[in-house]
Design brief:
This protein is an alpha/beta fold. It has helices spanning 4-11, 67-75, 94-102, 154-162, 180-193, 203-206, and strands spanning 15-25, 35-41, 64-66, 80-84, 106-111, 123-126, 144-149, 170-175, 197-199. It has a nine-stranded mixed sheet with strand order 3-1-2-4-5-6-7-8-9.
């Protein structure tokens, strides 16, 4: 449990439960192949059984870190910053993105959309989850819709969310890593029949990088 003063700073977005931060190559979606600095924020209650970073779920095990420290370290690595989780929108992202923007950095977020959108973002990747659907207001602001496909029922789920985003939003289907060998042929077939969709692969895992 955080002491009251720390909790107040975290609730205000002045500190964030930082799980890890690292410079690597974006492996997924529209910006795949691009160098970027990732900020992984702890805390998530969406509860995907196939999540590959379950250690991010409990915010209490990740130390509250001053956003000035986070932003300074980010600036030293890249001009493209990706905030991910966990579920980063559990926290107020406005103070962090203001600092990043003040440093002329590009701000990207990867989110389930389950919480109110906060922050100033150049790129929003929405990856909706069945257990906790996105809030309605995020759809119109989404640049990229990325649906994780674990089984064939996820195609219907993907189409339901594709109806809610803008016509300019880029649509991706991504195989869930643990079943990728089995599910990828179905995704290939689906995309060829429904070419508004593109395939996203977790290329960083093939490259054996973070």
């Amino acid at each position: 449990m955080l002491n009251p003063e720390l909790k107040k700073l975290v609730d205000a977005g002045k500190m964030l439960p930082l799980m890890e931060a690292f410079y690597t190559i974006q492996g997924e979606g529209y910006h795949k192949g691009t160098a970027a600095y990732f900020i992984r924020v702890g805390g998530c209650d969406v509860g995907c059984h196939w999540c590959d970073v379950k250690e991010s779920w409990d915010a209490d095990v990740h130390p509250p870190t001053a956003i000035e420290t986070i932003a300074t370290q980010a600036m030293e690595s890249s001009d493209t910053i990706v905030v991910t989780g966990g579920e980063p929108l559990m926290w107020d992202m406005q103070p962090l993105t203001k600092l990043l923007k003040d440093k002329k950095l590009k701000t990207h977020i990867e989110t389930s959309g389950a919480y109110r959108l906060s922050g100033d973002w150049d790129w929003i990747c929405l990856s909706p989850k069945k257990r906790k659907p996105p809030v309605s207001k995020i759809y119109s602001k989404t640049h990229e819709l990325k649906v994780i496909v674990y089984n064939k029922s996820d195609f219907k789920f993907a189409e339901e969310h594709a109806k809610k985003v803008s016509k300019d939003c880029i649509l991706y289907l991504q195989p869930e890593w643990s079943v990728s060998e089995k599910i990828t042929p179905f995704i290939v077939e689906y995309v060829m029949k429904h070419p508004k969709w593109k395939i996203s692969l977790q290329t960083h895992k093939y490259l054996n990088i973070p």
